[in-house]
Design a protein that fits this description.
With 166 residues, the chain is α+β, with helices and mostly antiparallel strands.
């Protein structure tokens, strides 16, 4: 399944996306709020998972250049809920790409059996907070000092967006 917006294509991962994915996951600016920079073997395992995941997408611009990734993780216990996550290459940040891709992903999810989406974001990640709020997510919980990153505990905010019933 490939998703389209006015400026972007969200397409399944392909083996040729490995160099971009490795570069993204080794970028300190990208990983600043996500986690530690993993070893190449660990990143490769994550990439292989993305290759097999039908809900994981590479975000490509109009020139078909990779600018980020985005995906859903459907709950095993409640398939009507999913977590969302995304990362955008630094050169593509601040251009509305994350918001546009997230809206396409929300539409895709809500067209299936998913009725609620959750996102976890560190309080310090104000760029991602703005993306989520602009996309209709609401903060529903604050987990104080719950996320350990580089030896420090950070507040983790949980956002939620539910399917609109018209």
């Amino acid at each position: 399944m490939t998703l389209y917006t006015s400026r972007l294509t969200l397409s399944p991962f392909e083996p040729s996306d490995w160099p971009f994915f490795l570069h993204l996951r080794r970028n300190g600016s990208v990983m600043r709020y996500m986690g530690e920079i993993a070893s190449e073997d660990q990143i490769r395992t994550l990439f292989d998972d993305r290759l097999a995941d039908r809900h994981a997408f590479v975000i490509r611009n109009a020139r078909h250049a990779s600018v980020g990734d985005i995906g859903l993780r459907i709950s095993q216990h409640n398939p009507q809920e999913a977590d969302v996550g995304y990362s955008i290459a630094p050169a593509a940040q601040g251009q509305g790409i994350a918001s546009e891709a997230l809206q396409a992903l929300c539409d895709y999810a809500f067209d299936s059996e998913v009725q609620a989406l959750n996102a976890w974001v560190l309080a310090e990640n104000q760029g991602s907070v703005r993306v989520l709020e602009k996309s209709g997510f609401q903060r529903v919980q604050v987990l104080e000092k719950a996320y350990l990153l580089r030896g420090e505990y950070h507040d983790d905010w949980i956002y939620r967006r539910e399917k609109a019933w018209i």
